[in-house]
């Protein structure tokens, strides 16, 4: 997915619902059926997958990692991020 595909979501105060797949073969961000799906190679332990998701999503949005806040789904596959 290109950086510009998600760049339109990069507005302050925006919320993004994301479906995460940890332990994937490769890191990737894709939009499928109006759902943002993120696959990360990191395991879902000790916050490693969440950190990898934030890194990948911030790169796709073209924003700093510090602007993304995980507001829901700290331990689940369905997550909600707020862009500050």
From TrEMBL:
Family as reported in the entry's similarity comment: Belongs to the UPF0235 family.
GO CC annotation: cytoplasm
Protein name: UPF0235 protein MGEO_18590
Gene3D superfamilies: YggU-like
Pfam assignment, any one: DUF167
InterPro entries (alphabetical): DUF167, YggU-like_sf
UniProt lineage: Bacteria, Pseudomonadati, Pseudomonadota, Alphaproteobacteria, Rhodobacterales
PANTHER family: UPF0235 PROTEIN C15ORF40
